[in-house]
Design a protein that fits this description.
By secondary structure, the chain is α+β, with helices and mostly antiparallel strands. It has 5 helices and 18 strands.
């Protein structure tokens, strides 16, 4: 499968808390200095921080760190800790008197899954996750499953554990494309065998759903991450009456030379990997978000316009499939958890 850290210079750090009401965490992707980045948000209910600064039309060109966190909008506070670490390290946009680190962030909803609604990521956890990433050697093994921002992640309408997954591909020209996923999805992977246990679930017509039902949302608000209800304890896991909590967060990284607009386009293309892996995805109530980072160590063929287009199309197509693999890895690596809020079983053994 490979991992995001197969892209030279990329490091990943996790911090998590479980037990005593906690089930949440923070994951930080720390790229080499000078890394170019952008983002594409296609979910209808995102919880994000500093994503507007990554638009190709803005002043910012480079990204100092990316924070993926639990805690919904509350958890975005962890980005302040990552920013503090970057400032201490001298990373950031140079301004008179110092630097302003560019640290975009996105959050999943995991509030209350450990039993305490107020147990959510803090700035200190963001700082610690960034320091953990910096302390890792280049090419290190990325921890998967119930770690970092995947600690409180669930799939299948809150019935099964989700988690952190990662994958990579190396092309013949030496370009590496990697992805890291935090899988906290309403639905299930395509082509899997388990039915969701919610009465009234309906199948998609046309036979293209891989046998996976689309959970009914009847009687529930669709106000996004912050309005979704907290899971409640039940014998079979989180109750089916909880609101839609369908957020998958992705960081795609490559060693290719890309400008901000090309990173933006690659992030957009990578969303296809979410749609290929999970049913449903990109709903009104989710926060599906893809960041794209380009370290600029390997030049693409830009000898003419046709070569440039072919290089970018190939890279973006590969990125989408690496995202798909990272998501499936996150589901497969997740382990069962029991908390006062519910029992969340592993789903990996039911994948085929």
């Amino acid at each position: 499968m490979g991992s995001l850290t197969d892209v030279p210079g990329i490091r990943v750090g996790h911090v998590q808390k479980a037990g005593d009401g906690w089930l949440t965490g923070v994951t930080v992707v720390l790229p080499p200095r000078g890394t170019v980045g952008s983002v594409e948000v296609q979910g209808g209910g995102p919880a994000t921080h500093e994503t507007d600064a990554l638009d190709p039309t803005t002043l910012v060109q480079q990204v100092d760190a990316v924070v993926l966190t639990g805690g919904s909008a509350y958890g975005l506070a962890s980005a302040a800790g990552a920013q503090r670490w970057c400032e201490e390290d001298g990373r950031g946009f140079a301004v008179p008197g110092g630097v302003v680190p560019i640290v975009p962030a996105a959050a999943i909803f995991d509030l209350g899954r450990g039993g305490d609604f107020s147990a959510r990521p803090t700035p200190d956890m963001g700082y610690a996750a960034t320091a953990a990433a910096a302390a890792r050697p280049e090419g290190h093994v990325v921890e998967r499953g119930n770690v970092g921002a995947g600690t409180g992640a669930l799939i299948g309408r809150g019935q099964f554990k989700g988690g952190v997954g990662t994958a990579s591909v190396t092309l013949e020209n030496g370009v590496v494309v990697g992805a890291l996923a935090i899988v906290n999805a309403l639905g299930l992977p395509f082509g899997t065998t388990t039915q969701l246990a919610e009465p009234g679930s309906v199948r998609l017509s046309g036979g293209h759903d891989g046998g996976v039902p689309w959970p009914s949302l009847r009687g529930e608000g669709a106000g996004g991450e912050e309005r979704a209800s907290t899971p409640r304890a039940s014998a079979g896991g989180a109750e089916a009456s909880q609101g839609p909590l369908n957020t998958t967060l992705i960081v795609v990284a490559t060693n290719a030379v890309l400008d901000v607009a090309e990173c933006k386009r690659t992030a957009a293309a990578s969303h296809a990997g979410i749609a290929r892996a999970l049913n449903p995805s990109h709903t009104l109530a989710d926060g599906d978000t893809v960041f794209c980072l380009a370290t600029g160590a390997s030049a693409l063929d830009r000898s003419d316009e046709a070569a440039r287009q072919l290089s970018l199309v190939t890279l973006q197509s590969v990125a989408a499939d690496v995202v798909r693999l990272a998501i499936l890895d996150g589901v497969a690596r997740a382990e069962p958890v029991r908390t006062p809020a519910g029992d969340y079983g592993a789903y990996g053994g039911q994948m085929r």
